[in-house]
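Repro:
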Amino acid sequence: MPTDIASKRSFVMFYLALFGFCLFYFLMGFAVLEIGLTDHNKHTNQFYGEDFGMLVMFVGIIILTTYTIHAYIKSAPSIRLNNNYIKFGLTTYYWSNLEEISLTGKKPYLFSDQKEGVMLKFKDERTRYFLDEMYANTPEIKQFIRHHIIGEAAEHQQPNEPGVKDEQFVSYKGKAWLNYRSFLLWCFIGLLIYIGINHIGHLGLLILLLGIGLGAFKLGSWYVFYFDLSDNYFVVKNHNMFWVSRIYALSNIQQIVFEQPYKMPGSIRVITKDFKSKLFRAGTIPDRQWIDLKDELEKRNVTVRDEFVYAIVFYEFTFIKEIREIFRNLN
């Protein structure tokens, strides 16, 4: 591994996502200006309440755009590091002043949201963060820090595939057809098929419908992963994309995170010992199975970070129990 590393920002998660945010804000600002300019008061010299409201909205959009760009760059600064220091942009921090470090865990993102990232705290300096998904070479950066700065040797990883067919697996999954996202997906695909059958002679339209259908299928399939667990392996599968099977040897896993992003289904993030990370959303798994899966992983000495299962346990076994006890006493 080289002794001098420069960060490489992710094209999709940094550049493309930032462009999407800016485009969205630009269109919002354009719409506000157009509505304001075409308002029936535009030819008068008087300033009405509606005009003031449009002005406030436009200024708000400018502030929001500025904040987003600043927060994005702050969460993904340009980084260069070697054995002596790490540089964020033009600011240099020496490893000799390092006070605290965290290579995994949730770190500040836009607004009040948080994402997986790195925290570095230096003596007499402010704490610095950077987020995993913003860089194409995050695993390389983390491995460098672990090996050269923390002093931990890289762990040997065994192949994921051999021996998996001899294992006895327990599946953790629900019924995909009972999941509302899956139901809406197949209803939408059914509608596209119906439109296509009624316009069978229009090749251009059929190609368009096929593209929309494949995109919707791919998007909908992101939410219906499920998991198989044996004594030695953790396998990720998908209800819709039945050919998908990602196999992890438990000995190669550094941490499994049970997380639930805002208004999203329960998910599992697998972080391997080389710091490669992958998130799998599993909207079909019932609450009871989430609890069982967490317990079984911990029994196999897998490091688990629980960010939402504890809430299920509280609701099912504490809150509901107390409510039942209250009604029992009332009777």
